[in-house]
Amino acid sequence: MGPVTGAAPAVTPVETLHLNLLGPVEAQRGDAPVKLGGPKPRTVLAALLLARGRVISDTRLTTLLWGDHPPATCPAQLHTYASRVRHLLGPGVAVERRRPGYLIRLPKEGVRVDLLEFQERAARGAEALAAGDPATAAGELRRALAVWRGVALGGVCDPLADAERDRLEEERLVTLERRIDADLELGRHAALIPELIALIATDPLREGLRGQLMTALYRSGRQADALAAYRAARATLAAELGLEPSAELRRLQQALLTGHPSLLSRTARGAREAPPAGPPRRGGTTARALRPAAPARAETVPPPAELPPAPADFTGRDQEVIRLATALTSHRPRRPDQAVHVVTGMPGIGKTSVALRTAHRVKRSYPDGQIHLDLRGSGPRPLDPAEALGELLRLVGVAPHRIPAAPDDRARAWRTRTAAGRLLLVLDDAADERAVRPLLPVTDGCAVLITSRSGLYALEGASRTVLGPLTPTESRALFTRLAGTSLTDSEPAAASAVVDACGGLPLALRIAGAKVMARPHWPLSRYADRLGDPDRTLAELAVADLSVRDRLMEAYGRLAPPVRRALRFHSALGPHPVEPGTVARLLGTGPEEADELLADLAAAHWAEALRHPGGPAYRLHPLVRLFAQGMLAAEEGSVPRVLPQHASWATTRTDNTA
């Protein structure tokens, strides 16, 4: 592409394009600013960058640009703004039209996005702090914070700022508090006091900063001032919110009153006493200092380290893992939704892989142990909660003959054993809320990661990460890792066909990669042709003990009969979103009843719920649709072919989910 009249000279290979979101939204090529224009092109650029390579639908972009009152000409204006961003950023950055919206693709080199740099440095700093290396942590976290240039998303339209700015600011504050923790561990408490006083004046309800100020004052020999800081925190919380300080802050006050050694930094504690046996405690955690010491553990029973290995070829899901790891390594007193996290999605979507990847990333923050327990919720014999409690008690060192027989007694014993510790619990494949409630520790020092095909929406105080299919780019990357670069590069069209037939489902991609590796004498095009035949797709997606059809059948059996029937008939309506009224006519029910059944399918992640102008609509994943068509033929006797049965998943995806 040649130079554009009136624009900057052509890009040279040494120039870096800087795309900045953490302050005013702006772009800069080398030392020259790129003139983005007013709020709307800045909003389009920022929204595309925040989507991380995913498609943003026209509907979503319209809402971010104009709110609830878009002009009649908004489609044409949206096209203009996207074209302008494409033109201004130059040939190295692709702003592509991918129906139903747009996406941005960045080259691997030559482009710097300040948000990505901040998050990568913040993650490295958090890991170093959890590993007991406060010097490295302080440096990385300080460099992460230096990336910020002011209030994030400056100059964009209000709807985008309202949707994203608070989340980004929370990431900044968590990183700031970790940097202060690292500085406290390095003995910089006196220098931190003025900074903390200023930060509290700006954000007086943030209890983490209050606890850090109390710790810094105590370590500076100002015990009375530290207690006064607690009284000020209590008065502010009571006046503003009508609440008492958190349990963590109250424990810190008790430690201040008694001069507990845990208030000292790691270096100071080491000078007073020999280091404790077992794995190192997490460095720099005021939260750890607040807690009474855990009961002494017998030397023959080390802390449990039960995590299975994470998949070595894990691909994609970077943002989901970063968000979970950030919440799980927070050093501050936790909100209720920071202690229990549910990872959910359709069968085969990679819930366990995400949970294990996250757990391994944060395990050093949980020195009292990491436990993985398979609850077998999708199988014929789910693990009974009483059995699960017995296994958990055994893993934390309770002798078998001391494990109570009654379920309620086991639950009380489990809560007692975890009350003073910092434990990470991964509960894999939970069937429902009843399977996990008795297993949850009550202390906010512990954390729980749960995977479940159900969203566990009745579980109190839980946050949720809903996994969707991998993007086409992520899918291609995973398949390439599994099948080998030489094969996918030699037959790129066949590789694309295989990836598209898998619909972004990690299980399907893993099976396809295994089958290709097991048949090196086959051309890839042969397997692509077999996989692309709707009548044999599911049969081809099976190898050894992995089968997409079997995984779907397990989950299908857990659906209520009316919901199963709605799924079967929905499958006859093709790949596009379907409104409840259409399904109602096939089912012989009213639209409201059909909507209830389809909503149940969406809650169980069998269908994708979409917002349409006329109300909700629902769409099936292509592999789910093929499975349900088979069940329709088996249980109803025929498959009405109302619409075409095969369409590219990449061309029908949308992020416009309800």
From TrEMBL:
Keyword Transmembrane helix on entry: no
- Superkingdom, taxonomy of origin: Bacteria
* Keywords (A to Z) from UniProt: DNA-binding, Transcription, Transcription regulation, Two-component regulatory system
Q: Where is the composition biased (Pro residues)?
A: 301-311
Q: Where is this region: Disordered?
A: 261-314
Instruction: Supply the CDD domains for this chain.
Output: BTAD (cd15831)
Q: GO terms for molecular function, please?
A: ADP binding; DNA binding
PROSITE patterns attached here? Answer: OMPR_PHOB
What positions does the DNA-binding region cover?
9-106
Q: Which residues form the OmpR/PhoB-type domain?
A: 9-106
Q: Name one Pfam family in it.
A: BTAD
Q: Among its keywords, does the record have Lyase?
A: no
Q: Which GO terms describe its biological process?
A: phosphorelay signal transduction system; regulation of DNA-templated transcription
Low complexity compositional bias: what residue ranges? 280-298
The record's family statement is:
Belongs to the AfsR/DnrI/RedD regulatory family.
The record's annotation in PANTHER family points to: TRANSCRIPTIONAL REGULATOR REDD, TRANSCRIPTIONAL REGULATOR REDD-RELATED
Protein name in the entry: OmpR/PhoB-type domain-containing protein
Q: What is the lineage of its organism?
A: Bacteria, Bacillati, Actinomycetota, Actinomycetes, Kitasatosporales
